[in-house]
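In response to the reviewer comment on reproducibility (Comment 2.3), we provide here a single inverse folding case reported in full, input and output, so that an independent group could reproduce the run without further information from us. The structure tokens appear first.
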């Protein structure tokens, strides 16, 4: 199987499961007997534990040959963990299993992104074309599992998680050819702390934490806010789907239009889109403007993510790829988003939809952080 096909299938299967987990898992926990307070506790603990799991797993991966076996092991453990929910739905069981699955399940993404980063260098992989299948699968899961939950019951949420992880486990038995190549001269990858001390990495993480973290209020409270403004859940679903479709278009056009654009330029474009998007959403809830704001998801998330991938895969030494991918997943996509999600809840209680203005202000420092080249070593003549 070619690396492009393997990664496309992996992203599709993983994000179909994640498109189930993110919006619907709280519903399943409620149907399993968890109170609203316990559901909130479980989701919060899961967010904290996943960061520990990602850093713990990625700190052990130092060579390309480790990637597929670790992905295979984590997929199997994740599948078994979710299967255990069928028979253990006491408060203690839900707590233990929630901690267990969040230690292993989220780590699958930085591992697959690290594999993609290796193939970008090794075979000039069209990353956007492979990654767009994940976005498409996310939308499909929102629609399909939503209907299954409505007409067939909440157990379909758990069935879907087990199915997606079972299929990922089977996929890992079919190895991509060529395999991810080792570092030159057999050098192993650098540890996370060594990577963190590299020039530009700390600034890169702060930039991406602000850009991706600014989406926290949108992810957590936009649906509630729009519903309170009189929009139906159907319209809200279409708006969310439109944002992901815009993201897919960016990934699809990555190689054709963006392949020669630097990470710094992509991140600057993501900043401009984020400023405009959060400003629009803070100023109005008119449907036409909401559509425009959702189209800007292509830039605020999609282009920003491509900028992060570009920096990791092209502007860092190959030894730093695994560590940088772990730090990006754990800090920018994990810790920052989790903290800002909790802060957003407090801000929403006080300011309602005007909280979007705080998200716009949050990304303003990125303009200063991007004033110079991200990697000064590479920029030096």
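Designed residues, in position order:
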């Amino acid at each position: 199987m070619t690396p492009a096909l393997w990664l496309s299938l992996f992203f599709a299967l993983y994000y179909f499961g994640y498109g189930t987990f993110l919006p619907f898992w709280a519903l399943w926990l409620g149907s399993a007997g968890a109170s609203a307070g316990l559901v909130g506790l479980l989701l919060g603990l899961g967010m904290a534990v996943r960061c520990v799991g990602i850093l713990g797993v990625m700190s052990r991966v130092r060579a390309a040959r480790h990637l597929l076996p670790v992905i295979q092991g984590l997929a199997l453990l994740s599948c078994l963990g979710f299967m255990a929910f069928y028979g253990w739905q006491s408060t203690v069981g839900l707590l233990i299993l929630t901690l267990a699955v969040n230690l292993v399940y989220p780590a699958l993404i930085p591992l697959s992104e690290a594999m993609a980063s290796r193939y970008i260098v090794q075979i000039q992989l069209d990353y956007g074309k492979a990654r767009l299948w994940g976005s498409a699968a996310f939308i499909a899961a929102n629609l399909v599992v939503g209907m299954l939950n409505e007409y067939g019951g909440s157990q379909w949420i758990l069935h879907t998680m087990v199915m997606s992880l079972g299929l990922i486990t089977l996929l890992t038995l079919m190895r991509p050819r060529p395999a991810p190549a080792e570092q030159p001269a057999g050098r192993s990858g650098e540890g996370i702390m060594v990577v963190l001390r590299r020039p530009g990495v700390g600034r890169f993480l702060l930039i991406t934490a602000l850009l991706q973290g600014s989406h926290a209020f949108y992810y957590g409270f936009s649906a509630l806010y729009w519903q309170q403004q009189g929009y139906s859940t159907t319209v809200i679903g279409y708006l969310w789907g439109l944002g992901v479709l815009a993201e897919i278009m960016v990934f699809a056009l990555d190689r054709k239009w963006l392949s020669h654009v630097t990470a710094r330029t992509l991140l600057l474009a993501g900043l401009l889109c984020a400023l405009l998007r959060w400003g629009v959403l803070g100023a109005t809830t008119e449907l036409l403007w909401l559509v425009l704001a959702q189209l800007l998801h292509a830039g605020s998330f999609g282009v920003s993510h491509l900028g992060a991938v570009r920096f990791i895969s092209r502007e860092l030494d190959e030894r730093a790829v695994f560590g940088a991918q772990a730090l990006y997943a754990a800090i920018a996509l994990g810790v920052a988003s989790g903290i800002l999600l909790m802060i957003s809840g407090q801000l929403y209680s006080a300011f309602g939809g005007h909280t979007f203005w705080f998200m716009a202000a949050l990304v303003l420092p990125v303009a200063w952080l991007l004033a110079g080249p991200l990697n000064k070593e590479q920029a030096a003549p």
